Amino acid sequence: MTHFLHRARDGDRGMARRVLVLATAALLGLSTACTEPPPPQLLPGRTQESTVVVDEDVPYREVEGDQLVADVCRPKDQSGPLPLVLLLHGGGFSQGDKSNVRKLCERLADRGYAALAIQYRLLPDVFPAQVLDASAALGWAATPDVSQRYGFDTSRTAVIGSSAGAIIADSLAVGMGDPPVVPRAVVALSGATDFTGTLASPDGASAASAKIATEYMGCKDLSRCSAAREASPVFRVTAQSSPLLQVIGSDELVPLDQAQVMDQALAQAGAQHQLVVVPGAKHGLELLDSDTTSALDAFLADHL
Fold first, then answer.
1. Which fold, 30-303?
2. Torsion angle of alpha carbons 154, 108, 1, 268, nearest 10°?
3. Eight-class DSSP state of 275
4. pLDDT tens-digit profile of 239-291?
5. Residue 162: enclosing H or E segment and its boundaries?
6. Fewer C-beta neighbours within 10 Å, C or N terminus of the chain?
7. What HEC string does 203-228 produce?
8. Who has greater pLDDT, 124 or 38?
């Protein structure tokens, strides 16, 4: 089912209201952003300064001598193991870091989750490096000493990714990278899912988004990229794929047909799926306003 979030124009002051219209229409979509500004409408990270504990720069993996680190956000009054939410930042695979999702990390902790915001490899490392890093983070979190130290209940694990991070999240949802922990819920904010479709078409996406996809797969020409199908989550969908919530803008950097084809593939496979389309050009974390945050909260509560 596709959800369309329609808003009144800013000028209609007294009449301003939000209407949620449910439709079963198929949509269009795909591409990814180079930069990702903090979401101005995202709910505050902490209700009070003392409610959340953040352990910063915790090493979770070493690759060729380089240490990858994560931030762990937990409620200060944690009394037992908590559901784990892995957070994957955006930035077009060339920039961005775990600080981009810090507010979301703290907000999730404030709501009773343990959140893990990771640093993953950026370019010039190419696919599947980023997916393997995220998979390794799940494996690290599930080791007995780590799960006990931080109070992770990895039997209840979710993944949230934004922009480039949403591509990684979609990949984990369909089992790419052989994640040692199968997510029970995945949320993709502006995720690309099919690198053989509109991204490879001259009229299907912006030159910038096509360039990002090409660099992510280590190719020179997206239309002739041998890794395009292998790197596309849509071709890995099965009935065992994790429940997936996709949130995307109707006129943003990522063409909408990418969200549509993923949603259709999940439906055909019998996997659980939800698609929320927000009118306008907002992308990634910018999509998280009160309506979409409520949808995210409900999705996590239903599956964890």
1. Rossmann fold (3.40.50)
2. -20
3. E
4. 999 999 999 999 999 999 999 999 999 999 999 999 999 999 999 999 999 99
5. strand 152-162
6. N
7. CCCCHHHHHHHHHHCCCCCHHHCCCH
8. 124
Where does residue 27 fall: left (phi above 0), alpha (psi -120 to 50 degrees), or beta otherwise?
Answer: beta
Q: Are 17 and 290 in contact (CB under 8 A)?
A: no
119's tokens = 């640093």
Q: Where are the beta strands (DSSP E) in 175-302?
A: 185-189, 244-249, 273-278
What does the block give as tokens for 242?
A: 């994790």
**Whose CA is closest to 134, among 66, 204, 79, 87?**
87
Confidence of residue 79 (pLDDT cuts 50, 70, 90): confident
In angstroms, what CA-CA distances link 165 with 33, 83, 90, 91, 131? 11, 20, 5, 8, 9
Sole residue written with tokens 């010039």 = 124
